[in-house]
Amino acid sequence: MTAPLRKALRDVWQERTRTALVVLAIALGIAGLTAGLSSYAILVRELNRGYLETEPASAILRTDFVDDASLKEVRAIPEVKAAEPRRVLNGRIKAGPGQWRSLVLFVVQDFSGIRVSKLVPQAGAWPPAAGEILIERDAMQVAHAKVGDLVTVRTARGQDVSLRLSGTVKDVGQAQARMENLVYGYVTLATLSQLGETLVLDQLHLLVAQDGFNEAHVRGVAEQVKGVLEARGHLVKRLDVPAPVKHPHADLMSLLLLVMASFALFVLLLSGALVLNLMTALMASQVRQIGVMKAVGGSRAQIARIYFAQALVLGIAAIAVAVGPGLWGGRAICRAMAVFLNFDLASFAVPLWVFACIGLTGLLAPLLSAAWPVWKGTKVTVREALTDYGVSRNSFGTSASDRRLAGVGGLARPVLLALRNALRRRMRVALTMVTLALGGLFFMTALNLRASMIGTLDALFSTMKFDLSVSLSEMASAEQVERAVRATPSIARAEGWIATEGSFPAPAGGERFPVFAMPPKTQMLQLNIVSGRDFQPGDTNALIASSALAAKYRQLQAGKSVRLRMGPVVQEWQVIGIARQPFSPAVAYISRAYLDEAGGHAGMSNSLRIAVRDGDVEGARAGLDKSLEAEGLRALTSNSKADSRTSFDQHMLMIYVVLIVLSCIIGGVGGLGLMTTMSLNVLERRREMGVLRALGATPRVVWLLVVAEGTVICLASWEAAALLSWPLSRGLGRGLVLHAFRSGMDFTFEASGLAVWLLVSLLLAVLGSFVPAWNATRVTVREALAYE
Amino acid sequence: MISLQRVSKDYATPAGRFPALREIDLTIVAGEFATIVGRSGSGKSTLLNLIGGLDTASSGTIDVGGAAVHGMSEAQLSSWRGRKVGFVFQFFQLLPTLTAIENVMLPMDFARLLPPRQRRPRALELLARTGIAGQADKLPSALSGGQQQRVAISRALANDPELLLADEPTGNLDSETARAVLGLLRGLGKTVVIATHERDLKADRTIEMADGRVVR
After folding, report:
1. Dihedral over alpha carbons A345, A347, A353, A358 (to 10 degrees)
2. Under DSSP, is residue A86 helix (H, G, I), strand (E, B) or coil?
3. pLDDT digits 0-9 by tens, A471-500
4. How far is residue A699's CA from residue A773's CA, in Å, rounded to a whole number?
5. Shortest CB distance from B107 goes to which of A6, A289, A297?
6. Which chain A positions have a beta carbon within 8 Å of B105's beta carbon?
7. What is the ipTM of this complex?
8. Residue B106 is nearest to which of A3, A299, A381, comparing CB atoms?
């Protein structure tokens, strides 16, 4: 090992405490990057593998029914690898005397021969026998049941039937049941018969033989199949081609992981500021040594290499520290994501490119951060380096701003000293402040976003004047509904709506969205009209689009007319207004007058909005079930406003938990930065502290001076964060929500965030300065005065 | 060996331009043991720095061993110094994180005149020559002033330079150690130029300076 390399290593060792702080900061960034990249690599691979292994359907056709002859003909098409009939029903499920839960029931013709959208048995029986039901593994928690239990299932046309929960399956293609608050159940045709439903399978799941990743090809094959079915007299109501080879939530997962990896890079950038501070201080303290090395023949490049080697050591140490925890974190993320997206991880193997990226970034980050101080530090001439200038040209007091600061008075001398000391190394302090301020900014932004989301959701839910939303299995007359409502004492008032689906004919659209027909003077929904007007009595073919629907289809503007398909009918509708409904799916509201008059559904409804008495939602729900039964009606789903709100909150929770965690990490890096800065400040001013002590300052006074200096930095960063958090939260919140939900957000500033971050800043100030301050007081006056 | 013609050096100071050297003409022949004497601020250290390429002249020409020092870039000066000149400083200026022998090997690592395997034996030989081989693996902080200066002399000889420049090499040593160090320098058989306050130092030639000029 050459002498320059030895010097590099020993210098790092000599500065081990500060080096450790900087290494820790870089390690935080690298660990985050490792976690982000490794989880990205694992999840993308495993999600696709897990998803593709189930042979997801290339296309799904919804028809009246699938008969054997048609199925045989479809299977004979060479481009069709597999075709299987299925049925999906909505219903309810209850375990024991518990509460009814929404059920999505999949009917499979032959469990032992599934070739499309495969199910993976997890526990219990496989295949299920007649009278048995399998439940998706994640939905078991929603169902509040265990294998072996008897559950009651109710479908639209059938009666309540007790089925044995005989096992669990994994269905990768479904969204997380807990998040959706749904139970996914799987039964045979025999069980369907027991449920009292007609023995009809009305969906055809297709798997194309080749070129399954080519959406145009898949659509072509599906159209061919559709032609076969139609030629046999079947009505094909809908043809869906999911995005090929992509899990339905793959994009969301990639976005989340991208955000995380970007954040890790950002942390790495901030830790680069610490490297910059450390190297600047190191170069300043080594001026004379640099001069000597130049005097004995070292060129600038040779000397710069010594210091770059030190920066490299920081990177290597940080990588060594970070990779383990990073990989561990990556695994934790993978596990959480696997639960979230409901798939299994077969391997945690991290590909080599991830390690290459981490190595490269981990080594380059400190090298790049060190470039400027090293290059500047090695520029010094031998004469400058070896000459004692006394008070240097760059000392405090030589600039106009210093002199202005020196003019600040009216404070106690120690406070003035702390204030001026804090601003002596402006670049160092600025970088430290930036890291601390960013931590505060993230934290306050997270709180503001949370408050804004809650405020916006409060406003949204306040427009809903009902407590319970009930969908019926079929159309009911006004009299039937009225009688059922009257017979339920917990109901204060109710309104009958018609819920259906609509779409805009091609080329404008094609995607279906819910359409609600409601009375023009509805008491149950107070739409927040942002453009145009609300319904008025006399409106017939009037339509109000939710903001999400209007954002999706630009032709939806107040005053314009659109052609809307509902069922087989395409009708001209007048868009009279746009209703703001943040965080909500695309929905259209129409006046039910048209359906009453032209649609032949006068006074009928299949969807009820109910306001309850004294908040007795459960009483109303249970009572209405019975009352409807007495009228020969059946509630298919029954969702309370509180349930919907909980589901919303669950989705939002993730966003601000992530933001708070991220702000804590940045705050941590800021704290490390402050500690590094304060220790460098103390080191450089050791002689001054000796002078202070010689002049009579007690160790306690010196300690307080250092802590006060740290406090000044923290308070300044808090102020910067406080000033910036308002516009940032507003802009970020609006941008995020607009991107994710196609609607704006009501901004709320969380004032408590300011106070909390002020406390955190003060705490960081004390923690960050404590060790350097303590070290400063341990040095004897003689040592301090002799320090060079 | 050393030839200076009309060499001047000015420094810009907050108080205005300060002439440190004025129109110096000087020649020192190879193998000479010369001292530059004068009071503080007379310009002796500046003269030594210009000869060794530690600083650049404002005007004039400096030729050392056939090399036109005044025309060299900073990088060329570093390389030239490493091969041709050895420096000894008043405060020894050893690198604190390197041991004595590593300090001596440092110029060899920079100049790369010797293969890596031969550097340690040579450094040990030089330390032995200055009588300090026994302390080779100690850090400077563990050495006395005299020992540190011996290491510094060994380091100055690392690349076998033609010229040795010493700025107050005994200024920080007691008289007995100072005598020993000077004896060591005198016995090297190289061109040695020493800037010193001590006018009675025995030398082949004494150059006296005052107010930036050679007065004798």
Report:
1. 80
2. strand
3. 888 888 888 889 999 999 999 999 999 998
4. 9
5. A297
6. 2-3
7. 0.72
8. A3
